[in-house]
Specification:
The chain is mainly alpha-helical. The chain has one domain. It has two helices and two strands; from the N terminus they run H-E-E-H. It has a two-stranded antiparallel sheet with strand order 1-2. A hairpin with a 5-residue loop joins strand 1 and strand 2. The protein is elongated.
Length: about 110
């Protein structure tokens, strides 16, 4: 009887583990699908952002009315919602210093 109970517990443990494996496999497939959907969504957002970036630079003009060169400038959006056009040749430390100065002025 003890051996029979032991075999029964072992069989129940195996069945429980098989159910867990099945559940985890379903969860894995679900997460793969979700990841794929998010990747497509991110790709679409990147395309929209690039289009917006091109549209903005197409419309921007300098003080003399000439188009702003997108290869020389970047659009910088700060955490407070302000948008700046900055030269690309500024180093990160210069950008950080400029951002600090702007925040101090506000």
């Amino acid at each position: 009887v003890a051996a029979q109970n032991c075999r029964k517990r072992k069989l129940n443990a195996i069945l429980s583990l098989e159910e867990d494996v099945s559940s985890l496999q379903r969860q894995k497939e679900s997460l793969k699908k979700e990841h794929s959907q998010h990747s497509r969504s991110i790709s679409q957002m990147k395309q929209k952002l690039n289009k917006l970036y091109r549209d903005i630079f197409r419309r921007l003009r300098d003080d003399q009315g000439r188009p702003v060169n997108p290869w020389k400038y970047i659009i910088h959006c700060s955490s407070d919602g302000s948008v700046l056009i900055m030269p690309k040749n500024l180093t990160k430390s210069q950008q950080k210093q400029k951002n600090k100065n702007e925040q101090n002025q506000n």
